[in-house]
Every structure is written in structure tokens, then in C-alpha cells.
Amino acid sequence: MKQVYEFLKKAEVYYLATMDGDQPRVRPFGTIDIFEDKLYIQTGKVKPVAHQLKANPKVEISAMAEGKWIRITAEAVLDENIAAQQHMLDAYPNLKAMYQPGDGNTEVYYLKNATAQICSFTEPPVVITF
């Protein structure tokens, strides 16, 4: 999991795919955090992505860094723990202008049953499950 975290931090931006009914939706994200040995992402409760995650928690994430790419398949699990929200916002202080722990809008999700593949054109894929 740490290798996945480090890859996504290096990439700075990753793309999160969800389902909106029968239509896939993809958008850029930048928040990634490890809290209590789980990999977390963050969004706002009022955003369409939060509604999509509640309707169908299956996600895919993709990013590129240093000539390699990562693909992650997982389930996003909402964690209402205020400490998890605080940890995320401490890692991304620029978000504190829009989000506060326990504000009713900040949502953090950890990735469960995740499989990540780090690939390139020159090396065999590295598969990581967590």
C-alpha cells in the first residue's frame, strides 16, 4: 500500500472513475493519505462524486509518473471518523479554506479490496493488493 501511496503522491494528480447510473464518470483528484494503515481519498458530500460513491462504491484510479502508470481497482468505504478527516486535512492544509473536520461536508473514503498494477513498457507489471 505504501508503494501505491508514494506513486500517487509523485503523480500529484490521479483520475478517479465512478459510475453515474450506467455512465462512467472520471475526474482529477489530488488527495491521498494513509491513516490507520488504510489508503484514503477525500471529497465533499455535496459533490456528484460522493453521491456516485454511495450508490456504487466500486472505483478505479489511474495516474502516470516517471514513465510508468498505475491502475487501481477498489471499493471506496466512507469513514465518518473525524480523526480521519483531520488527518487528511492536515496533509492538505490548502483544503482547510473549503473543508473542516466534522463540518457535515468533508468526506473521506478508504480503499478496500484494492488491487493496484504499476506498469511500464519496459518492465513487468508490479501487482499490489491491500
Overall mean pLDDT stands at 98
User: Could you name the CATH homologous superfamily?
Assistant: Electron Transport, Fmn-binding Protein, Chain A
The helicity comes to 10-25%
The end-to-end distance, rounded to whole angstroms, is 6 Å
The first-level CATH class name: Mainly Beta
CATH fold title: Pnp Oxidase, Chain A
Low-confidence stretches: none
The tally of structural domains comes to 1
Proportion of beta-strand residues: over 45%
Largest sheet: 8 strands, antiparallel
Number of alpha- plus pi-helical segments: 3
Order of helices and strands: HEEEEHEEHEE
Give the number of DSSP strands.
Answer: 8
What overall form do the CA principal axes indicate?
A: globular
CATH architecture: Roll
Search tags:
130 residues; alpha+beta; Pnp Oxidase, Chain A; 3 helices; globular
Descriptive overview:
The protein is α+β, with helices and mostly antiparallel strands and 130 residues long. The chain has a single domain, classed as Pnp Oxidase, Chain A, CATH 2.30.110.10. It contains three helices and eight strands, in the order αββββαββαββ. A hairpin with a 6-residue loop joins strand 7 and strand 8. The protein is globular, with a radius of gyration of 14 Å. The termini are close together.
